Amino acid sequence: MRALLLENLHPLASKILGEAGIEVSTHSGAMDEDELIEALDGIDLLGIRSKTEVSARVLEARPDLCAIGAFCIGTNQIDLAAAAQLGIAAFNAPYSNTRSVVELAIANIIAMARRLTERDKALHAGIWDKSATGSHEVRGRTLGIVGYGNIGSQLSVVAEMLGMQVYFYDVEDKLALGNARRCSSLEELLDNAETISLHVDGRAGNAGIFGADQFARMRPRSLFLNLSRGFVVDYDALRDAVVSGHIAGAAVDVFPKEPKIRGDRFDSPLRGLSNVILTPHIGGSTEEAQEDIGRFVGTKLRDYVTQGTTALSVNLPSLTPGRSSHAQRITHIHQNTPGVLAHLNQILAEHDVNVGGQVLATKGHTGYVVTDTDSELSQDMLEALTAVPETIRLRVLD
Ligand SMILES: NC(=O)c1ccc[n+]([C@@H]2O[C@H](COP(=O)([O-])OP(=O)(O)OC[C@H]3O[C@@H](n4cnc5c(N)ncnc54)[C@H](O)[C@@H]3O)[C@@H](O)[C@H]2O)c1
Q: Is the per-residue pLDDT at 324 higher than 80?
C-alpha cells in the first residue's frame, strides 16, 4: 500500500503508517485538482488538511483510492457522498483540539476579568496603571455555556476546577457534569450567568442566534465569548453592547468572514474596542492538537487498511470488527438494498467458505459487511462476490 500525505502533516502520521508497512510519500503544500489527480496514480491512502479539495472529479478519476484522512476537524473539502459511492472511506479528527479550545476560553475569561489586555497595552505604552478597579477573580463567578457538546462540557469541568459556578443550555438533553446546572432555555441561562460562552455547532439554524435581544438580556457588566462559529453572532450588536458598557468584555475567535491567508488584512466592527480580545481562529491551533490529529487520523487510516475498521468514518457505516490472527477477512462495501447480505452468503456457501464471524452496518445508501473465514478464498469466489450488482468495493485482508 502507498500513502500520499499533503499539507505538512504531523510526522506522527507518517510514522504510524510506515510502521504498518505502508510506503509513505509527503508533499508540503496543497494541490489543485489536476495536480492531485496526477499525484494519486498508484496511491491507496491520501492525507490532507483543509486546503486540498477532493472533488467528485478527483475521486472519479482515481476510483482505486482506498481512504482519505482529513487531518483536521472539518471535512467540507471532501465530496463525502461521491467518496462513499466509490467505496472510499473518509476520516477526520473531531476531538483532537477540544482541550485547546477550552484552555483558550479559560485564558480569555481570566484575562477579561482582570482586564489584562488593557493593562498590557498601557504598560507597553509606558503608563503604570496599577489599580484594582474593575478587576475580578473568576472564583465564585457564574459561567453560562451555550452548547454542551465536546467543548462546552469540557469547559464546564475545567471552569468548576477554578471555582466557577456553571450553568448550561443545550438544545439536546445533555448529562450535567460535576455540579453544573442545566437551564431549560437560553433566556434562563442569560438571566443566571455573568459570563456567557458559546460552543454551539455550525448547523444552519444557528445563524444569528445571538444578537441585540440576547445581549440586552445578559446581566449588566457581563463577559461574552464566542469560540464556536462566526455566523452565530451579530457582531454589530456586540459592538453596541460593549460601547454602551452593558457588556464589560468580549473574547472572539471566529468571524463570519475570515481572511484566507496568514498575513491578510482583517476587518471587523469589534476592532479597537477596549477589553475585547480578538484572536484569528486559533482556538484549536496548538502543537499538542496537531500531534493528536496526526495520531488520531493516522491510526484510523491504518486500522481501516489492516483491519477494515470504519469507526468514526464520516462517510461509511461504522464498524469495529475484532480480529483473530489466523482468519482471512473479506470487507465488502455495497449499495444498501434488501437481500445483499443473503446473496453474499449464498456465494460463500456455494464455494464451501465457512463464515467464522460476520458483522454488518449500514448508513444511508451504503452497507458494509466484514466476514472472517479460515477457508481458502478462490479467485472464482472473489469474482462472484465482485459481480454482485450492488458491490461497490471488495477487499481481502490477510
Ligand atoms: N475556535 C476554534 O478554533 C474551534 C476549534 C474546534 C471547534 N470549534 C467550534 O466549536 C463548536 C463546538 O464544537 P464541539 O466539538 O463541542 O461540537 P459538538 O457538536 O460536540 O457540540 C455542539 C453542541 O451544541 C449544541 N447546540 C447546537 N445548537 C445549539 C443551540 N442553538 N443552542 C444550544 N445548544 C446548541 C448541540 O446539541 C451540541 O451538544 C463548533 O461550532 C466547532 O466548529 C472551534
A: no
Q: Which among 19, 137, 187, 258 is annotated as catalytic?
A: 258
Q: How far is CA 286 from CA 73, 87, 203, 289, 292, in A?
A: 13, 33, 25, 5, 10
In this predicted structure, what is the pLDDT of residue 143?
98
Is residue 325 over pLDDT 80? no
Cell matching residue 380: 472464482
Task: Give the pLDDT score at 338.
Answer: 95
Contact 270, 250 (CB under 8 A): yes
User: Relative to the CA of 283, which ligand 1 atom is closest?
Assistant: 3
For atom 12 of ligand 1, which residue has the closest CA? Answer: 199
Mean pLDDT of 206-212: 97
Percent pLDDT > 70 in the chain is 99
Active site residue 246: no
d(CA 215, CA 219): 8
Burial class (CB in 10 A: 0-12, 13-18, 19+), 150: middle
> Residues 114, 246, 281, 295: which is the catalytic one?
281
Residue 343 a catalytic site member: no
Percentage of the chain exceeding pLDDT 90 = 95
